[in-house]
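Hey,

The postdoc asked me to send both predictions to you directly instead of through the lab channel. I've kept everything plain text so nothing gets mangled by the mail client. Protein one:
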Amino acid sequence: IADLESQLTQSQVDLQVARHRQSALASELRESTTSLKAAQAEVTRLEAVIKHKNGRLRTLNDNYERRLRVADTTIATHTAELGRLQDRVSTLDRDLQKASQRAQAAISQRDQARAAHIATREYLSASFLPRPARDTIARLEKRINKVERSQKSRQDLESALAKLQQERDDLAVQRDELLGQLGERFMEITDLRAERDQAQGKLSSIASLLPSATGHKRTRSGAESPTSSTRASKAARSTSSSSQASASGHAPVSASPIELLSTAAVGQRATRSMSSSSSAGPPGHLHRSVRSAAKSGGGGASSLPVASEAIVHSDSDESSSGASGSTHVFDSDVAGNDSGSPESSRAKNEFGMPSCPLSDAELAALQPTTVPRSEWIPGYRDRRSFRGHDIVPWSAQDIRQISIVEMDADLLFHHYTKPMEWLIPLRDPVPPLGDWREDLVDEDNVRDLIKSAPWEVLAAPLDPLTFKSRGWFRHMKQLYASYEAEHLRAYWDSTHAFPVSITKRRASRYLDAFYTDRKQRRSRAGARWKSFLQQVLIGLLRGYCDLDLLLDPFFLHFPRPGEAGAWYPGIEYGADPADLLEALTITDAADRWRNHYRDVPEEHPALEIARLRG
């Protein structure tokens, strides 16, 4: 009986252990089932995201191809028109030369007739011969009449010559306008390519996650037992964690973001210089190789249109007299004339950019400026350290991490267009609703505000402080003036972005469209501003100017991330405006920076920087 009792006890213990094991196996089975469902849901979600991204990519590709075809058609039309205008100019030049030759012949005949007339008079006064003298006088009168007719014909030719010259000048202006339009088309194509590349990068990053998820799904579904499924999932998790740890262990920790960006810019410029074409056509010639090179090349300065370079060279015939226009900026005439500089013999790529930085000898051969180029901001080839009070308002820490040859359009766009907290203060915390007049933001007040066009205050004419409008600087000024006139409202929006709640946008189609258009205007203006900075990069690489050019009050600037830009109507202490127009008047009077000091140019912070005035 005792043996049976011990056996019964042992059996009960074994039964309890078996029940615990059964419970553990059931728990593992439930966990495996839950993990399988989660993996399947994640795979389904990723497939939906990829499908959406594929649709978006197809749409972008279609839009890109359509706009590219339109741009190609426009370029072909403009190129044909340009060729026709050039043929017309050549014909006018030939007609002008023929007219000049005829005029010179008429003048020569007139002089000969006058000489013969004088000689005849002297002869008659010396010895009177009645009949032969009358015949001679008659012949001379005929020649004089012929010369007078020739003189009248000469006057007609001169007037026709003046008309031809005027027509030639008009054709030259039309040619420059066509080249400018071609440059804008190239900028739009560059922006489209950047958007397409960004979408493809996002799609690749999402697609890279799909194979691991499907493999995880196959591991789950192909398991023979709950225990093996659990072990497989644990092994997959441990492998993933170890790979992440090994990847993080090789990440650099000592380089700053600006240094990393500058290093990447140097690599991109080196790649572009190696892949650029060595052949160069005439400035006005737009070959298809330009577009193919732009399609295969990187961003930054090399994506500048060749038309811009052509317009720059069209200004090279101006006189080179005059004083320097700034402490830092090169004399405008010299900057616009490449024929007399060492850089004229340098190879340029198909977009007009120097294929490599200027050498020390070429920099020394450039015309000297009031402040030596060795003190320009930043260093041209080598990174230089500055004292903070010598380069105000730039950050000495940021400037010593970069040089001009390391800079590209992306780095210039994100870090060096404007010093932080110079024109625009830092952003304040979002105030509570009771501290400002949200009730003023309604459809009627917004309509009245927009109807008044308050952004027109930014269109006030302002003369440049650091350069004169000749040569390369004239071309750069024309490009910027065109860009600013097109995106003036976006600049005003950037410092007067009053909140429009989602409730009000749902209640009013007008407010919803206003809110959407405001965001789109800012996006388009930012893309065009980045394209314009490629022109500034040309001036930096050629030694025409340094970063202080962008401090000129002539340029408008968007708030940088972290700077103020939102407008809360009626937030000023003691303010009780009746509508948005009155609130705008109060705000602009309190915050002069919101209108970029265009209404009070004498208060612009750039006027306090002595080195800008020279």
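Protein two:
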Amino acid sequence: MKNRKFDIGLVIERIQDSISEEDKRLIYLGDGSGDYCPSLRLKEKDFMMPRKNFPMWDLICRDPSLLKAEFHGWRLFSLHFLLLQASDSVRHCS
């Protein structure tokens, strides 16, 4: 997190505050070790989607009980299908 210009954990908290009254969930995608600490702020209804066989995946797999959010690993071509499953509705642009 030292190299980032903003605190992703703080961004997550602000988004959570803004949607707390709504029935919405966060979907967080990550692959680097810098995504681990922010992902610990996710709630039970949220999704963490770490890229398989990358540092984030390895950190979660060491102790998955630390993560409150549901997590689903992905590889390049499976991401699209996981996102569709995680969303309650799909909106199409016309």
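Summary for protein two, as requested: The helical segments are 8-18, 36-39, 55-62, 79-86.

Thanks,
C.
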